[in-house]
Amino acid sequence: QYFLLVNQFSIQAATVPKIPAALNRGLMDPGMTECQYSQISTVASSPMESQLGKKIPKRKWQTFPGRNKFYCNGRIMMGRQTGVFYLTLVLIVVTSGLFFAFDCPFLAYSLSPAIPAIGAFLFLFVMGMLLRASFSDPGVLPRATPDEAAHLEYGINSPGSGGCRSPPRTQEVVINGQTVKLKYCFTCKIFRPPRASHCSLCDNCVERFDHHCPWVGNCVGKRNYRYFYLFILSLSFLTIFIFAFVITHIVLRSNQTGFLSALKDSPLLNHSDTVLEVVVCFFSMWSIVGLSGFHTYLIGSNQTTNEDIKGLWSSKRGKGNYNPYSYSSVITNCCAALCGPLPPSLIDRRGFIQPDTPQTLCFGNSLVSLRADCDEADDLLFFFFLLHPSLLPVSLASWPFSHDSCLPLCVPHSRSCSHLSTPSALVLESSL
Amino acid sequence: MAETHSLQDIRQQASVAAKVFIQRDYTNGTMCQFQTKFPSELESRIDKQQFEETLRMLNNLYAEAEKLGGQSYVEGCLACLTAYTIFLCMETHYEKVLKKIAKYIQEQNDKIYAPRGLLLTDPIERGLRVVEITIFEDRSTGSGR
């Protein structure tokens, strides 16, 4: 069967004018016949690797299907638009910098040196929390492997039918007495767990999705909610602190020398800095303190911003409507949100891609995993798919179809391959 | 009756016949728990009791990882006070339990599942969505071409 496969391909290759170099190298390699003939090995070192030469093992973040940016070789993960995040950083650093440079010396001398010390601690805490909230994985759910997706698509309850049926859009589950609907995510090909939501900006399903925060440059979800909350809480303290002490500074100076001369005597630079600090702090104070208050309420009632906005658990929806996730007391809710166990990242950004597991690098692996029990007709279908110019990926990491278009190729062998959807249908599906 | 295979044998020689996915059980909320219902595809391969025992143990381990109690609060507060820098040198409780789970699954595979031509995949490799059980072809019945 495999020999037949290679022969068909060579016929196809002769008729198609262009094949990208990477694909060509992988498929036309003379050693391919040998490794295709051998059975599937789950051992990492497959013959294909050594014959293709120096193949640098890729880390999983390099082929991550979501719209995220990765830095430091996968250690740092952020959302796509990071411009506003840099604005946040600049605002905080500049305002605090001005405070430490121009107000602190006076205050340390005339009041107490504890003021700059507390200020410094607050500033470092704010920066630490901001960076943690921005750089960590919010709780992204990895997309379904082709086997799982196929299992869902072909019907969970009718494994023998082999019929190609799209999965039901919702599943109902009773959680602590409340009926909750689990929605099917067409992009990630999974039924979203309760409280999870798909972020359209990052193109990922995120667990306990709160909201996508542009100021932080990342989604706020299960794993970084506490950092986000501590960030806004400490930032409110910092803004109030700076605002209060800048005003104190002006008041004290004016007491010493008279108000107008306090403003006149100090060099122009000082004056404008003070004004800048006061303005920034005043305007941001209201929004940040307000936001902290809002999130304190959310934590106490164990809801996400998403749920609160939709009014999912509000009593207005019905008499028996209550939040099934809330613990018995407000204190338990707070402790759970802030001091609960920290779940690990599910996407394993820095792990190496195993050559045998069907992940996003489908085009390379699918040939090795293509089964001998597929019909001839399906082999032709596969090659049409592979060689159709519009489906050839420019770069596997960014092409939206590269992951989904491999789906029929990695279908478990117990199912007949003749039930694969046509290329056009699959393209439509992956564009959802 | 199925031939007995060792885990190495399975990985190197057998071919995959089917995969069974055990889904999550959300009846107690968002805690990581898996359904203990015995799938029909495994009826010929493994004892129902054994399978349910494995899953029950897994569920207990995950519950232990996510437990809200004195230890997790202490860890959380300490971490907060050190601005989470403590996790640069220390593993979280959850990670420790995940290692325990990985060891347990490895042990179950070696002792119980591999000799029956089955392989349990650690749920963490599937994003804690499913427990994937790979059913390998029975060499005695043979279905290769």
Q: Nutshell version of this structure?
A:
Chain A is built from 16 helices and ten strands.
Description of the structure:
The complex is a heterodimer of chains A (432) and B (145). Chain A is mainly alpha-helical. Chain A is 49% helix and 8% strand. Chain A is built from 16 helices and ten strands. Chain A has helices at 2-15, 21-28, 32-37, 47-51, 83-110, 114-135, 146-153, 225-257, 259-265, 268-300, 305-310, 330-339, 362-369, 376-387, 401-404, 423-430; strands spanning 69-71, 76-78, 140-141, 170-175, 178-185, 190-191, 197-199, 204-206, 211-213, 218-220. In chain A, strands 3-8-7 form a three-stranded antiparallel beta sheet, with no helix packed on it. Chain A is globular and about 80 Å long. Residues 1-36, 44-50 and 359-432 of chain A have low confidence and may be disordered. Chain B is an alpha+beta fold and 145 residues long. Chain B has one domain (3-37, 45-136). Chain B is 40% helix and 13% strand. Chain B has four helices and three strands. Chain B has helices spanning 7-13, 48-65, 70-81, 93-113, and strands at 16-23, 118-121, 130-136. Chain B has a three-stranded antiparallel beta sheet. In chain B, a hairpin with an 8-residue loop joins strand 2 (118-121) and strand 3 (130-136). Classes of the chains: A mainly alpha (432), B alpha+beta (145). Chain A: Its EC number is 2.3.1.225. Chain A: Residues 181-310 form the Palmitoyltransferase DHHC domain. Chain A: It catalyses: L-cysteinyl-[protein] + hexadecanoyl-CoA = S-hexadecanoyl-L-cysteinyl-[protein] + CoA.
